[in-house]
Design a protein that fits this description.
Elements: E1 5-9, H1 13-25, E2 29-33, H2 36-45, E3 50-54, E4 56-57, E5 60-61, H3 62-72, E6 78-82, H4 87-96, E7 100-103, H5 108-120, H6 141-154, E8 160-163, H7 170-180, E9 188-192, H8 198-206, E10 207-208, E11 220-221, H9 223-226, E12 231-235, H10 242-254, E13 256-257, E14 266-267, E15 271-276, H11 280-285, H12 291-297, E16 300-303, H13 314-329, E17 335-336, H14 338-346, H15 352-366, E18 371-372, H16 374-377, H17 390-393, H18 400-418, H19 423-430, H20 434-443
Parallel strand pairs: 1-2, 1-3, 3-6, 6-7, 8-15, 8-16, 9-12, 12-15, 17-18
Antiparallel strand pairs: 4-5, 10-11, 13-14
Helix pairs in contact: 2-3, 3-4, 6-7, 10-12, 13-15, 18-19, 19-20
Bound molecules: adenosine-5'-triphosphate.
């Protein structure tokens, strides 16, 4: 079997030797270059399975080489060696298409992991030609572009930030990036940053040592470490408290974690994907999100469009959701009437694909004779100014207090349904705090 070929580019002979020995021990055939020019010459005269380049070269810099490779040898994955703590360069390299980066002083174990991951890029995906575990439905141009983007970012280790309205499929996209990439055999660990109480956040994410605080009765591994070799998906990252943002930044920069109560740091090999339905740039402008962390997690950005911007996908989504529901409810003859189809195509879907799933699930249990009709869908009219105008809903003689409570109850129930009973998101939608929503829910007897 032919050995994979690696090109290493560094002007320091000691580093070249260290890299060459490490890679040769991993059974790679190594070509070494000390300058940008010799590296380009080598790339022109043969093909390589990977390239590892230092940033500072006597006749140019590593970024030039990353760019050259993207244009002339895009099939060759390239990783860069950056000076310790030089995040800016690492981010620029990743944005230009580098697969990953490693900082000096070189940690041999980390280097080996990086090389192994890079070589996996050449393997066919998914594993053993199996069909993908999950699928993105829809043939609209927007979905096609999303699929292309997923395939592209799956070839890199760069942090990706996914944004879009609630229920558009951000977590699904994160999962697909994981499944299509070299980490697909490792774990995919989703974490909802908005759902972990602030005081437990550090121990949940970083883990803790036994006895480090009251209640820490045993050592506990954190979520970040449990994603070792795989992907950590930080959902609702905008909800991460500021003190945790600082700690997360360190994790990303240093690729190390320190569990609570532990004296030493543990190296980690985790790809970080994140998502939010909020405007993270606006959160930065408001001082609610650290700019340095924003810059670090947002190396590549993916927007998932709302369903109303790709109505042509609705029919296919309906088909795949009904096909999934059929075995659950023991009915594979379920279908939509033409009027119901039209109603769905015209609907504004504030809760996006998740709302479509909920609508169909409810309709499937309500409908008679296997045919889902408009009435079974129970679509909610668009909320307009007049919908909430009191005068139109208070009947003459009705006590004002009761009428107001009805309006409030209705608005809260609607917000809860739209957000799939996520109170944090429902509170946001209603423009009130989580605490006051919880209070109103109790007072109005909604639960
Ligand atoms: N294009 C799609 N094809 C098939 N299913 C989809 C698609 N988009 C979304 N879904 C489904 O819709 C539901 C909501 O998706 P997901 O949880 O990924 O949304 P989200 O944007 O992460 O939501 P939130 O912001 O509330 O966390 C899931 O069940 C998901 O599988």
């Amino acid at each position: 079997m032919t050995k994979p070929r690696a090109l290493i580019v560094d002007d320091e002979p000691d580093i070249r030797e260290l890299l060459a020995i490490t890679l040769e021990r991993m059974n790679l055939e190594v070509t070494a270059a000390a300058t940008l020019e010799t590296a380009i010459h080598a790339l022109r005269s043969g093909s390589f399975d990977l390239c590892l380049t230092d940033m500072r070269l006597p006749d140019g810099d590593g970024l030039d080489l990353v760019q050259w490779i993207q244009t002339h040898a895009p099939q060759t994955p390239v990783a860069v060696i950056t000076a310790h703590g030089n995040v800016e360069t690492a981010v620029r390299a990743l944005k230009l298409g580098a697969f990953d980066f490693i900082s000096k002083p070189l940690d041999i174990a980390a280097l080996r992991k990086l090389i192994t991951a890079t070589l996996k890029l050449g393997e066919s995906s998914p594993k053993n030609g199996q069909p993908p575990r999950i699928k993105l439905s829809g043939q609209s141009r927007a979905m096609e572009q999303l699929r292309e983007m997923i395939a592209r970012v799956a070839r890199s280790q760069a942090p990706v930030h996914i944004y879009g309205e609630s229920g558009t499929g951000k977590e699904l996209v994160a999962h697909l990036i994981h499944d299509a990439g070299v980490r697909r055999d490792g774990p995919f660990v989703p974490v909802n940053c908005g759902a972990i109480p602030s005081e437990l956040m550090e121990s949940e994410l970083f883990g803790h040592k036994k006895g480090s605080f009251t209640g820490a009765i045993a050592d506990k591994q954190g979520l970040i470490q449990s994603a070792e070799g795989g992907t950590l998906f930080l959902d609702e990252i905008a909800d991460l408290p500021l003190h945790m943002q600082v700690k997360l930044l360190r994790v990303i920069q240093e690729k190390r974690v320190r569990p609570v109560g532990e004296s030493k740091e543990i190296p980690i090999d985790v790809r970080i994907l994140s998502a939010t339905h909020k405007n993270l740039a606006a959160q930065v402008a408001d001082g609610k999100f650290r700019e340095d962390l924003f810059y670090r997690i947002n190396v590549i950005e993916i927007r998932v469009p709302p369903l109303r911007e790709r109505r042509e996908d609705i029919d296919e989504l309906v088909q795949s959701i009904l096909a999934r529901l059929a075995p659950q409810i023991g009915n594979d003859a379920l279908h939509l009437t033409e009027a119901a189809r039209r109603a769905l195509r015209d609907y504004h879907f504030p809760g996006n694909v998740r709302e479509l799933e909920n609508v169909l699930e409810r309709a499937a249990t309500l409908c008679v004779n296997d045919a889902i009709d408009v009435g079974d869908l129970q679509l909610r009219p668009k909320v307009t100014q007049t919908d909430t105008s009191i005068s139109s809903t208070v009947a003459p003689g009705e006590p004002l207090g009761d009428a107001l409570e009805d309006i409030e109850r209705d608005a809260i129930v609607r917000a809860l349904e739209q957000t799939r009973y996520n109170k944090t998101k429902a509170a946001e939608l209603l423009g009130m705090t989580f605490r006051s929503l919880r209070y109103r829910i109790k007072k109005l007897g909604i639960e």
